[in-house]
Design brief:
The protein is α+β, with helices and mostly antiparallel strands and 173 residues long. The protein has helices at 3-22, 69-79, 89-99, 136-146, 154-161; strands at 34-43, 50-56, 62-66, 102-113, 116-125, 128-134, 150-152. The chain is globular.
Length: 173
């Protein structure tokens, strides 16, 4: 460890010891997006529209987004471990990216504005990071197939909590 690295490590230890020793202050709240897992794709009983349900791994909050039937199918297939006999659009896109020496690294659901969710795909194109705007349902379908993290900004959970009452249990796709 370099002298600067050692100095930083000692400073961090002392700062942590001071906070623990005095009992003052709480540890800082985690910030930034949190990883989430797809709980399932369900049908809303009232609207009969498919919804994808995600759960944050850090704080266990849920997020339910209304999606289209084709997108629901695109998410449900990898969740069920099914491999279609011919590639679907999402499979085709990942194959194309691979042939271009580009890979999906993560997806982030970034915002909720005017009842519309937003997401970003993060790609590695031969060492260069690229970000691409995406619909969250497409981002989730790609992430499940590529087995990369799905992240959600905390503000999205906060905004979604203020929208409507939580959906009740409903049939799964």
């Amino acid at each position: 460890m370099t002298g600067v690295g050692l100095l930083i490590a000692v400073a961090l230890l002392l700062a942590g010891a001071k906070e623990q020793g005095t009992g003052e202050g709480q540890p800082p709240a985690p910030s930034g997006p949190q990883e989430a897992e797809v709980v399932g794709v369900v049908l809303d009983r009232q609207t009969q529209q498919p919804m994808v349900v995600l759960q944050g791994k850090r704080d266990k909050r849920h997020l339910a987004m209304v999606i289209g039937f084709f997108e629901a199918n695109g998410i449900a297939i990898p969740l069920q471990g099914v491999t279609p006999p011919r590639p679907l659009t999402y499979d085709l896109l990942l194959t194309l990216l691979g042939n271009l020496k580009t890979s999906l690294k993560r997806v982030i659901i970034t915002d909720l504005r005017d009842d519309i969710y937003y997401a970003t795909l993060f790609l590695d194109a031969q060492g260069r990071e690229l970000s691409v705007d995406s619909r969250p349902s497409d981002a989730i379908a790609l992430a499940l197939r590529a087995r990369v993290p799905i992240l959600i900004e905390d503000r999205v959970f906060d905004k979604a909590d203020r929208l409507v009452p939580k959906p009740g249990p409903s049939p799964h796709f």
